[in-house]
Fold this protein.
Amino acid sequence: MELLLIILIGILYATGIYMMLRRSMVKLLIGLILLGNGANMLIFLLGGITKGKPPIIGEGEKILSGLYADPIPQSLILTAIVISFGLQSFAIVLLKRVYVLIQTDDLNDLNTPDTDI
Amino acid sequence: MTDNYIILPIIAHLAIAVLLIFFWRKVQIQRYISVLGSLLVLGLSIGLFIKTWHAGYLTMQAGNWQAPFGITFVSDVFSSTMVLLAGIAGLAVCIFSTVGISRHRIQYGYFPIFHFLLLGLNGAFLTGDIFNLYVWFEVIIISSFVLMTLGGKKPQIEGGIKYVTLNLLASVMFLTAVAILYGLTGSLNMADLSLKMAEIDNRGLVNVTGLLFFLGFGIKSAVFPLYFWLPSSYHTPPSAIAAIFGGLLTKVGVYALLRVFTLIFIPDEFTSTVLMAVATLTLLTGAFGAVIKRNMRMMFSYLIVCHIGYLIGGLGMYTPLALAGVIFYLIHDIIVKTNLFLVSGIIYKIRGTMNMDKLGGLYADYPKLSFLMAIVFFSLVGIPPLSGFWPKIYLFREGLATPHAWYLVVAMIIASFVTLYVIAKMWADVFWKDKPAEEANVEDDFAPMKRYHRALLVVPVIMLAIISLYVGFCAEHIATLSQRIAADLKDTAPYIKAVLGREIVKP
């Protein structure tokens, strides 16, 4: 399980950065999404994976006993997902706006030479 | 000492922002609420500073969950100073924006977003939890994205793309570093991390995590190989927005670097060398970038990059006096950089351009205003006894005393001279040179404004200039403050004790 996740995270980071280095803005966005997912998986992995032991206090008990899964990484990931969701929707609207204004998907055409505003 | 007062500067901004949303599209009411709100927060920040100065450390455990399990808010002298500076800069920019920001932009929610930005800044300064810091950073960047692109002009959108991409990348780097940190220690509380990191045997992994943090915060604070987004985006939004960005946003990156590298990762020889080398290159590239730019605001953007080098270099030396120099420079820099962009806004209002080839004759037309602006420029350059001069003494002295730091000192001296040269050239071009003949019939938007409106633009500049003069002429007060903060940063035991609430035996 761990090995699988490690490979998956590696692939997510690598493809994310590769996509960001392309010149297309849509690919840039996809790259950012992949990177964000990679980071979330990394938190999940590094929080330690415990199979089949939910952190739920059993009936008649007062505290958690024995080995149980750490609930913190999940709350961290949840927070990170919500944040990245907001940021990505902003980025999508921004890209759409750029496309309407400049009529191109190519990042190289973004540099209007040093004009005044 | 536990004290719920800490949260007030954060809550106040939230309340103001929410209140402003209720007055959507009512421009005049929004202006009043925003200025009054900023005044209120400044008052609260002063209160927090005074409380913290007397108590040393104030803490608040959110939801009464004991540290290290819950989210802790900590106010030490460093945090409360930063909150105070954010309050001052916030008020100045807020007053400036009542006239400087067009009705159109205010109708689309400029003021609420502005307060959300300051909310994020105050939160980032006061939190004692590394994941909570990440969340505050996100609050800051999403508000800054909106401010950056508000109005939707073509250059703004183009600058926005670069700004958004690099900041999102920085967040992912920061999150990756937090993940590894959590994997290593199982904790997120910075005080607890400080204890647990010291016990980890795998120093290689610790260093890698430290450098990931440096990468994440380095993008935000615009250090050498990661700064390209800054000069290509900061000149695009209106001056009031550029002022709050230039004054505070890069500095929050520096604040986070100072926190993380004094509390969690104590720089060893390798990290110190990396920091100093990066600082050297930042100083040189920023300075030379400023020389070739003819657009005033782009030139100022490069000067922001250049002067970040002093801060990073001081952190690299890591002696108490060098850290005191860094803090002093930080205080000076926030005030002056904010003011610099406000000044550029007034010049833009007068002449309608930022291109130095087309500017000129400002001294002949506005002698008093030019004198005021001269104070700002001279403070920036650091002509004794103005504010930029004193921290450099600390930094030069420590640079000479630290072995193998000669290259940093050379870079600092070059950067100082280049800053002087750039500002002198700009002064000659913009203020002394005659107005170019082809620009003779360009309309002046500043003079026909109502007297009261002109005052609203000039008063914040005067206010910040007076604070700059205070920092320069009463340097002893600021030096006492910076030395106390530097001592706190070096000796973290009281901080850890205040957060965890028990005596700490450091291994």
